[in-house]
Amino acid sequence: MADMKQEEISHPPMDQLQGLEYCIDSNPSWGEAIALGFQHYILCLGTAVMIPTLLVPLMGGNAHDKAKVVQTMLFVTGINTMLQTLFGTRLPTIIGGSYAFVIPVISIIKDPSLAQITDDHTRFIMTMRAIQGALIISSCIQIILGYSQLWGICSRFFSPLGMVPVVALVGLGLFERGFPVIGRCVEIGLPMLVLFVALSQYLKHVQVRHFPILERFSVLISIALVWVYAHILTASGTYKHTSLLTQINCRTDRANLITSADWIDIPYPLQWGPPTFSADHAFGMMAAVVVSLIESAGAFKAAARLASATPPPPYVLSRGIGWQEYNAFALYVNNQGIGLLFDGLFGTGTGSTVSVENIGLLGSTRIGSRRVIQISAGFMIFFSILGRFGALFASIPFTMFAAIYCVMFGYVGAVGLSFMQFTNMNSMRSLFIIGVSLFLGISIPEYFFRYTMSALHGPAHTRAGWFNDYINTVFSSPPTVGLIVAVILDNTLEVRDAARDRGMPWWARFRTFRGDSRNEEFYTLPFNLNRFFPPS
Fold first, then answer.
1. Which of 269, 277, 387, 433 is most buried, taking the most CB atoms under 10 A from its CB?
2. This prediction's pTM
3. What residues in the chain have per-residue pLDDT under 50?
4. How many domains would you assign to the chain?
């Protein structure tokens, strides 16, 4: 080892990830782009179905209500994604439903004034209106942080060293949605995982007419094959005498979406009625907004890397965070169709964040094209309007999505770890900060999760419901805990002489929009809008 030259054992740090077939501003052929967009649409269905499946029954809703919420979530996701790729960060990211809002939403569901309503449908409608009102009010936090540049100022305390645990935990922190879900139906989940890894990695060089079809469409092919296999198991009566939980996770006919969905249904603002507003509900929801903001910031960093773009500067992050929440609020206040949407206005039952699984798919396919994601947004809008056709795809067992998540979340976690190349990992300070941040970022949320599962309430359980929601929501998010620990340690522990160890010389170019010439190529607004919204 001592005789080896340095260039033989080292890999120089790279601003942009190499090996992608298409980067953010290059595009495959239209036929390939359409097929890839449909694949992204299929992948985002897991979250779009799972969140309403969890929340709607608790709200008193029936199968038809769940189908309508799923359609609404997909419709809003499509428009949010289109706006984000055009006017937000312009990264190839899908803006879908967020699990961060589940805790405050459940608190609203358990509100005595709503829980005492005896008629289930009335309780569902009134609860949805309360959730809408809380989302609309709490969006002010993200608007302020985004468009006032406060989030950009806060991000100046970040360094590559501090970003390692945050971005890594955006992926690795979702481990509960991976193999633990596969274990609920191993006979479907495990073949799905093995087949997907085989197609996307071991057989990726197999080509049809000089086209790597297995690598590009491994998600579609593996889902189609295992879906048919799962349907055969269902039709043959394999699960007739199994437990209800097994049937829900294994059968292909338990979603009740196809028969419950309308043939054609266009979601529209205030479709559940006028929102109702409560200070307690709004304060509790603000914690989820902050968590969503942090998770989105980490996801944007990962998306930029897997799209072979430079790290988005603070101005671009602020623009993306602002668009993620601004549009619907503007629509609600001004009655103008600037954004046409917002989760609180349309009533999706939850807020929005960046879809982590779709970021992982950028790496799996090696396609980081913005156009592909925009086409995917078109599929979301189209199939949300044609309810029963969309419900057909949405009835895919969630166990199959969990198998794909094992790979996709792993990709994103690895991208976070790749930021270590810009830091000094031979420094004990660096090892301490990354190690402690990663460990506590996993350990603390796991404690909150297990406590909640056993006690049926979070560790924070005072008479102030909004305070409980704040604490339980913030410390149940691995990226948020990782950010808090990493930023505090990185900015207080031997900071004076640690700039190079932290990776700040490399990071300095990407702290301003004009710090690197490539920023204009990747992040400039379309239609020459930078004249009216100049970078600050």
1. 433
2. 0.90
3. 1, 325-341
4. 1
